[in-house]
Amino acid sequence: MTDRDDGPSFSFVSEPEDTRERIMQATFETVQAHGFAGLSIGRIADRADLSKSSVYHFYDDKDDLLLAFLDAMLAQFGGPLADADFDDPETELWTLVDFGLYGTTGEQFPPVDGVGDVNGRPYVELRSQATHDDEYRDRFTDIDASMHERLATVIDRGIDDGVFRPVDPDRTAQFLLTVLLGGLFRRATSDGLDADAVRSELEAVVDDRLLPA
Amino acid sequence: MTDRDDGPSFSFVSEPEDTRERIMQATFETVQAHGFAGLSIGRIADRADLSKSSVYHFYDDKDDLLLAFLDAMLAQFGGPLADADFDDPETELWTLVDFGLYGTTGEQFPPVDGVGDVNGRPYVELRSQATHDDEYRDRFTDIDASMHERLATVIDRGIDDGVFRPVDPDRTAQFLLTVLLGGLFRRATSDGLDADAVRSELEAVVDDRLLPA
């Protein structure tokens, strides 16, 4: 089996500003190249060009480092999008969906400051730990809940503004979140996703069900 | 972090019939309990109550064993469903979708022989290897293509039979596959999926777009 190290690159930070950031960046690159099973403090230290003891200065053990990494990743995924201001609910909704389907905020809508292309592979690799580790599972349950809440709030605001029909915001948000994460999962683990086909079908669904006749 | 070993159980085979099957079953249980990062020939041998050399008698190394395991899993996922006969395209379509959303063939439709509850966790754990390993990525790309083909064929047959509208089968299949895998991914990695909400939204979408007015 060969390691895959040629995916689109992605940085947590434009330039690692301090040692902690260097370690987080090195962890990201190590997950991307070797997967979770190939992670070790030694490999991360090598990639960060640090000694193992420098890494242990900041993190007690591998678990401690990985939970810090998980938090950094989730902040990267959710942070700039959480702070972004959107002109209207429809733009906001598609920006969130395109984040999953394409890993970008889409060509159709202006990019959100601080959110570039997101390579979903390390996200999926991390998230797969939740299949057998309760601590990860609880975190991703919280993350999904906050993403669901975000989508439901957008839909709710759209209904208030009269741009969306009076649908059930929770049900619609559950559905959109499943499509969004399905796109991200497929994109990260196979070459078969036709994101344009999924998006155009979803546009038709939104036209039929969410937008006023 | 704690291992999660309390998920719904699932057997490849009702009773391991020979040593290979015992090894595959032990591999399944080890992935479920410890994840991919916790897999070792020693751990698998212990769980199968075999010596390590017995395992090496059948498989050259861990990679060889894991690729055999991948094939066994994919046969388990796809096999019985591939052979099943369905009375009508709509039943077949929902059976495939419910497989992802619920891990079962659903209460609403008769169970398919040989397909019971499927715990998606080891599937997601295996599939996450495709984020950094081309051999896994190629296999899951093939798997998705065959699942897509299956869905498109069902839709096509439904159109021929006059039970579905003349939609684009490829586009619709891409969309359904993304919902199905999104459900499976969420179910395996968080406690937040409201499968009933997703299904009822999808029923409304199918009503609107696929079924004749």
UniProtKB/TrEMBL annotation, chains A, B:
GO terms for molecular function: DNA-binding transcription factor activity; transcription cis-regulatory region binding. Keywords: DNA-binding, Repressor, Transcription, Transcription regulation. It comes from the Archaea. PROSITE patterns: HTH_TETR_2. Residues 17-77 form the HTH tetR-type domain. The keyword Repressor applies. Residues 40-59 bind DNA. PANTHER family: HTH-TYPE TRANSCRIPTIONAL REGULATOR BETI, HTH-TYPE TRANSCRIPTIONAL REGULATOR RUTR. This is Transcriptional regulator, TetR/AcrR family. The gene is acrR4.
